[in-house]
Write a structure and sequence with these properties.
177 residues, alpha/beta, Diaminopimelate Epimerase, Chain A, domain 1, four-stranded mixed β-sheet
Length: 177
């Protein structure tokens, strides 16, 4: 019971300022530039979202309805993928990199256009490598490495046509929740 209460407070105490401490403004600006540069080499769209703690409705599902935490975190990432419009790219090749700080959880959600080319095991290895960096508190290095890996996959399956300008469909800014 104590563990459940502690977990609840860990999520409720966190807010966007906690996410901002993990990724200071200069780091977010560099990551935004990295995303923008990446998107010049492929037609995909990438978004990073860092959330301090789960909303109450998700905590409820885990704590009282006994849904596995990994399932609840995945559901939250997929929900944000939809709310942020990442699913709505022209070639269905958007990618969300989601970090949940309260649980040290990571999810990478790729749209169906990219998912059909990249096996789940490959996404899982990307998550494991990012997790290793985050455990060492190397947030920027881990996210840079993950962006590089995601970009290479997008370049391989959705390369940009040289000289063809296209609009930025999704904000490149890191989202803090």
């Amino acid at each position: 019971m104590f563990a459940r209460i502690f977990k609840f407070f860990r999520h409720r105490w966190g807010d966007a300022s906690a996410s901002g401490r993990a990724l200071p403004l200069q780091t977010r600006q560099r990551l935004k530039q990295t995303v923008a540069a990446s998107e010049q080499r492929h037609t995909g769209q990438v978004r990073i979202c860092v959330e301090a703690g789960l909303p109450m409705s998700y905590l409820w599902r885990h704590a009282w309805q006994r849904e596995a935490l990994s399932s609840v975190v995945r559901q939250r990432a997929v929900t944000l993928f939809g709310k942020l419009g990442i699913w709505d790219t022209e070639q269905n090749n958007g990618v969300l990199i989601y970090l949940l700080l309260a649980e040290h959880a990571i999810e990478v959600v790729a749209d169906r256009g990219l998912s059909k080319h990249v096996p789940v095991a490959q996404w899982q290895s990307v998550v494991v490598r990012l997790g290793t960096e985050l455990q060492a508190h190397r947030f920027e290095a881990g996210l840079e490495q993950t962006l590089d890996e995601v970009s290479k996959l997008l370049e391989q399956h959705f390369p940009a046509e040289p000289g063809l300008a296209r609009p930025n469909e999704i904000s490149d800014a890191v989202l803090l929740l």
